[in-house]
Write a structure and sequence with these properties.
Blueprint lengths: L2 E2 L10 H10 L10 H20 L7 E4 L2 H12 L4 E3 L5 H10 L2 E3 L2 E2 L2 E2 L11 E5 L11 H10 L4 E4 L11 H4 L3 E5 L10 E5 L25 H16 L1 H22 L4 E2 L10 E5 L5 H10 L2 E2 L6 E2 L2 E2 L3 H5 L4 H4 L2 E5 L6 H21 L4
Parallel strand pairs: 1-13, 3-4, 3-7, 7-8, 8-9
Antiparallel strand pairs: 2-10, 5-6, 9-10, 11-12, 12-16, 14-15
Helix pairs in contact: 1-7, 2-7, 3-4, 8-12, 9-12
Bound molecules: pyridoxal-5'-phosphate.
The site of pyridoxal-5'-phosphate has 13 residues, from α3.
Length: about 375
Amino acid sequence: MRHFLDHAATSPMRQVAVDAWVEHSGLLNPGGQYTSGRAARRVLDDARELIAALLDADPVEVIFTASGTEANNLAVSGFAGGRVVASPLEHPSVLEPVKASGAVEWLPVAGARVGDLSALDQPASLATCMWANNETGALQPVDEVVARAQAVGTPVHIDAVQVVGHLPVSFRSSGATTLAASAHKFGGPRSGGLLLARRSPAPAPVLHGGGQERGIRPGTIDVATAAATAAALEEAVGEMDAEATRLAGLRDRLRDGILARVDDVVVHTPPEGVLPGHLHLSFPGAEGDSLIMLLDAAGIDASTGSACASGVNRASHVLLAMGVEEQVVRGAVRFTLGRTSTDADVDAVLAVIGDVVARARLAGMAG
Ligand code: PLP
């Protein structure tokens, strides 16, 4: 039996999403001005309206994309052009377009969150800050970021990929100009992303084409993915409060159990102001890759939490930006709990973690 503890990377598709996808997979071009086009359009409109209602946005503000990565790129590249103020804790799908834009000013980091926000008091072409960090689960001060940026007329992008479907989100009251989400993080298909974008200011088009999705994301829309995304989000939002309590309980038991069994553990996830299912920690003296391999051999799917290109982990830029020593960063493991997680998953980790860490420490550090 496998124990999947990498829900922040991707979560299994909900049955309601599979059913919606299968039901609508035969639909054709929602832009077609004929009967089959209108049938597809109706399903797309329903999905858009449901998503808008669940995220407290106007239907016209919902832009369907193919991933959270695409939504982040469209927003960042669509606004960048002058000075950009950004959090260094961002996901690579924000960091890379921000770096490519040129004149970046990074917000200082204090602990697991951005700290001094005074760089936002000067106008910029864009300010960007994630709502919750994908490695540590730490919620970021997005309300204050938006308030300060808006006071000087700077558009704000929020990467809410880890938050949508897990904590309440109101696009209207967030004040953000754009907000990104990803369907597969809340049990939707891995082919679906969302960009919420106000009518004005709207990001300039990065892709040029047939004008779909207000010209922000041209291309023929996969209606089945849109319908499955809406169905998954509806179920996720419906069970959000109960799930948050349940997952936080499992997460606390996992953290306390690990601390009771292993010496010299550094916990990166703060005790408060975090997503309910995240636990990011380091076992200094061990390599993250060794820990992941040994956990895998024991039937446990976990990750180091940092961007992983072709299976090779790089030292987490998030932990480095938080000021964590490189030796400690290299021993990081992220456990993320989600809808399918149970006490049995926590028990499975606690049964092996002492031995796994002892063996990884014995193997030592590479290089
Ligand atoms: N932003 C954050 C915070 C994420 O955690 C991820 C995925 O891990 C993304 C963006 C990218 O989302 P997607 O996998 O849908 O491209």
